[in-house]
Amino acid sequence: MSLLQGDLAEGVGGLRLGWAGAYRVANRNVGTQLAVGVVLGLLYLAVVALSIGQAAFLLIAAAAAIALVWPGVGLATLALILPMREPDLFQPLYVVSIVLGSTAFGCLLRLPGDPHELPVRPAIVLAVGYAVYTVISVVPTVSGYPVAWAPTAALEALRIVSGLGIFLVAGYLFRSIPWRPVIAIALLGASLAAVLALLPFWHIGPLGSLAGLLNPQATDRASGGFSNANYLGFLAAQGALLALGCWRITPSRYRPLLAVALASLVTATVVSFSRSAYIGTVVGVLVLALLRSRRIALVVAIVAAILAVVLYPTFLEARLAGNEVLDPSVIAARAQSENWRSLAFAAGISIFLTEPIFGVGYGVFQHLSPPYIGASPATFSHDAYVQILAEQGLVGVLMVATVLVSLAVSLVRSSHPLRSAGIAMGCGYLVQSFFINSTTSIQISGLLCLTLAAALSAIPDRPVERAEET
Amino acid sequence: MELRVFLREVWRYLFFITGAVLLVAVLAFFVSNATAKTYTAESRLVVTAGLGTDGTGTDTVLAAPRVGQTYAVLATTMPVLQKVIDRAGLSYDPVELLRHLNVTANLDTPFLVVTMIDKDPAVAAATANALGDVLVEMSTVASTDGTAGRDLLAVVEAASVPTDPSGPRVLFNTVLAAAAALVIALVIVALVATLRHDPAQPSGVRVG
Prior knowledge:
heterodimer, A: 0% strand, B: four-stranded antiparallel beta sheet
């Protein structure tokens, strides 16, 4: 604590020390920064679980304030809490955006004193430009839509900005903060989110004391702190791919811990009964295998195909929670659900055709889709690509596609140990995005943003930078 | 390429960037303005008390949204559309009309909303009203006791002739075109600067 007090005092006195002093303070005691971030994150989760709003507010305020001086604290807190359910307490802002904002500001403060070069790539310029373009399009004066539509659109835009922010802030900090502990913290966060979904699913433990972290509208399928089981499956599949991708680069003494994390994430993927999560996981594992050898990939593909054929009926029975698979009402309900998805997809194409160049405007799909979907309650597209096509038109699609291609090329050319995990997660994410509006959920996208930041920006296995005592 | 270098290059090409943004914005403004304007007219119908015996029972309240949905589907059938074309004197065929016309009803309210988009504001309003009238006529339930029949639907708000166009969105198109031009111009500057300052490094690859 005295370390922090000293650094805080020096940080506050940064005005006297100048920018170089601010940079030096921010780079000191990296291990302590990460530990403080984890402790704050865990305390925050504990008080949110117990629904102690004021304590949660104080802890987030503390994390945000400390992140101004020690951005590593903010990064560690973020890595831990990214996949967790946000309490209503902080709306209309979100905890992630508050901590991320202050961490980003902490990075900006140290920027003028940073002796290292800050690389700028065309793809980053484009990604930042796309975020700004998205934000501009939700301003009611520009979009011409009712002001009442603006808050939801602004929140969706905030999530896009937050995703990009995590990538940029983490990418900047990974030049001086070792990536391994941060990715380990992120895996811990994902595993906790998975366990939080498994406990109520199996009716284990005093669930009442976890109420603040769980979705109040529980369903037959495990969902934990996510709005529905498909989102849990998405995150769990991403976490499982990260854990698998990290297996070979993890020292053997830490592998038991990684195995526990992997087991919880795979189990959560399974009990989410989410077909998109299964497909995403299989694609990711296949990519991981392909990156090792074609023969292994072929074996994985054959095993996956056999398992799919053999286990699909069992899966359906389990997903239907004991109802007969051939029960006409169950068949009708399933057909209706699939029909709603088809209607939402067709609505997306119809909306796109009304304004194909710039789209109808970001974050308004659910307001414009009702005339195209009849009685279906599924007003959202449930497909990230169709959503972008309809809302941002060909210009938006081109921007997103260019950013994705640039990311993919950089990742393929990277020599970072997280390269394989990043590619596998990216492929899984792209596939799962055909079934979920993934870009508007930081809960499920944050882990990939963090991993990509490490794989593309961090210096591989660089020793922890010691305090630059001068 | 380093941030300072990029900012220096942006300053260097500021004239090009500003010119490109202005040019695209002006072009988008004129193209949007030159595009044929469209007008949207809306009429609203409600499922009336005709359903139940006194119109206030639970059955009526529960059934009304479903009846509304039935009529929303009925409104998009070819015979109904043909009637609307005849009544409003339109030059469309039914399939063409369907591209301009929307009828919405949901499960929460007993209302139907008829929306018509057309280049002629008077045609838009006349068509929305014609469809409303056709649906009301079709909803008449014959009485069994010899008295006049009851209508299941009633027009609560007839479409008025819109004065402001609903499309194209000139400001939206102009601002987004300018923003897109700015982004593309900055990316081009970043590419040029990368090639000039880091010729050995392909774009997108970590430097250092």
